[in-house]
UniProtKB/TrEMBL annotation:
UniProt keyword Nucleus present: no
Source taxon at top rank: Eukaryota
Family matches, as Gene3D superfamilies: Phosphorylase Kinase, domain 1, Transferase(Phosphotransferase) domain 1
Entry keywords, A to Z: ATP-binding, Kinase, Nucleotide-binding, Serine/threonine-protein kinase, Transferase
UniProt cross-references to InterPro entries, sorted A to Z: Kinase-like_dom_sf, Prot_kinase_dom, Protein_kinase_ATP_BS
PANTHER family in the cross-refs: OS01G0750732 PROTEIN, PROTEIN KINASE DOMAIN-CONTAINING PROTEIN
Coiled-coil regions, chain positions: none
Domain named Protein kinase: residues: 40-320
Protein name stated in the entry: Protein kinase domain-containing protein
Region span, Disordered: 344-365
Lineage, broadest ranks: Eukaryota, Viridiplantae, Streptophyta, Embryophyta, Tracheophyta
Binding residue positions for ATP: K68
MF-aspect GO terms: ATP binding; protein serine/threonine kinase activity
Length: 365
């Protein structure tokens, strides 16, 4: 199917707010995007992902944009492009990076977003901005709550519900006030009404993938919750989801954090870059919620709505129950059995091509 037929129902939306008509996105010409990005100049390049490269640009009105340009055209890539546009055009929430527009001319496929001046959470935790200690504790809490609210919109308010399938620190972008915006819907799936999961070809990032999804391709909202749990642990500790401990083995963030939680040594989990300046109760909350979200058994995980409330300090009784969960009181829990310890992939990125053995069934349960 050509993307044009796929997008036949996706028109720039007119939203009436207080009598004002707001056009939320539009179609860009290739010429306009060439002009905005200085012909996709290398100096404008912000980074590269599975879909292609992302460039900074400026439009004639002075507004700054980020343009994602498809690497190599293929029918499959065209379809993924259409899926991302289709999903982006549906979502509008303060914590989701929305669509500014797209361009499809010849074999060129480009997606246009607002530029996020503070780039990704990854760059502040582990990348070029990490030495500047830009993330104090209040900022980390606001990022945790805001991104959970963005995901809650996808899981509970969008129609049909949407699973993101690639929640990770590179996909949480930060605006000028460090407000988080969940981005990158290239792997997202629309959940058929009433379905508990969809079985699909595995795509995602090692270290963030729920075990039942990595092994069986069973994707559901709770897979996003798992990934978000890993993200919470990363945000609290500044550690990467998977760490190389010697030339042959790796350790997941869960394997590292759980023994410290058994010993209730929360200060040893806290990111040293915060120099001890965090709210202990909140740190504990982020760690317990992160670990229970990243439980190997999907039924033990929380819903993202519960996550939002718990992070805000609500659902006190639920939190007491979480703290005394067997995961945190027994010795080494069987829960450390995630894909991280068996897989070592330097990019951490799983594309469909590397997973040809997993059959795409696309069947609603
Ligand atoms: N709107 C934006 N504003 C600022 N930077 C952005 C924007 N969108 C993407 N980027 C940056 O561009 C880079 C590439 O992003 P992209 O979403 O293509 O890939 P990724 O998330 O790094 O990897 P993957 O494709 O594996 O998910 C990232 O470093 C991201 O921080």
């Amino acid at each position: 199917m050509d993307f044009r037929s796929f997008l036949c129902c996706t028109k720039p939306s007119d939203r009436k707010e207080k009598g004002k008509k707001e056009i939320t996105w539009r179609i860009f010409s290739l010429k306009e995007l060439h002009a905005a990005t200085n012909n996709f100049n290398y100096d404008n390049k912000l980074g590269e992902g599975g879909f292609g490269s992302v460039y900074w640009g400026q439009l004639w009105d002075g507004s700054q944009i980020a343009v994602k340009r498809l690497k190599v055209w293929s029918n499959k890539a065209d379809m993924e492009f259409a899926v991302e546009i289709e999903i982006l055009a549906r979502v509008r929430h303060k914590n989701l990076l929305s669509l500014r527009g797209y361009c499809a001319e010849g074999q060129e496929r480009l997606i246009v977003y607002d530029y996020m001046p503070n780039l990704s959470l990854l760059s502040h935790l582990h990348g070029q901005s990490s030495s500047e200690s830009t993330l104090d504790w209040p900022r980390r809490m606001a990022i945790a709550i805001g991104s959970a609210e963005g995901i809650a919109y996808l899981h509970h308010h969008a129609t049909p519900h949407i699973i993101h399938r690639n929640i990770k620190a590179n996909n949480v972008l930060l605006d000028e006030d460090f407000k988080p915006l969940v981005a990158d819907f290239s792997f997202a799936k629309l959940m058929p009404d009433g379905a508990t999961h969809v079985t699909t070809r595995v795509k995602g990032t090692l270290g963030y993938m729920a075990p039942e999804y990595a092994a069986l391709g069973k994707a559901s909202e709770s897979c996003d919750v798992y990934s978000f749990g890993i993200l919470l642990l990363e945000l609290a500790s500044g550690k990467k989801p998977i760490e190389k401990i010697n030339s042959t083995s790796t350790r997941s963030i869960k394997e590292w954090a759980l023994p410290l939680v058994y010993a209730r040594k929360f200060s040893e989990i806290a990111d040293p870059k915060m120099n001890g300046t965090y709210v202990e109760e909140e740190l504990k909350r982020v760690i317990f919620v992160g670990l229970i979200c990243a439980h190997d058994q999907p039924e033990k995980r929380l819903t993202i709505l519960e996550v939002v409330e718990l992070l805000k300090g609500e659902l006190k009784e639920k939190f007491v129950a979480i703290e005394s969960d067997e995961m945190f009181v027994t010795g080494r829990s069987a829960d450390c059995n995630d894909e991280a310890s068996v897989a070592d992939n330097s990019s951490g990125f799983i594309s469909e091509d590397k997973q040809e053995q997993v059959q795409e069934i696309e069947k609603a349960a």
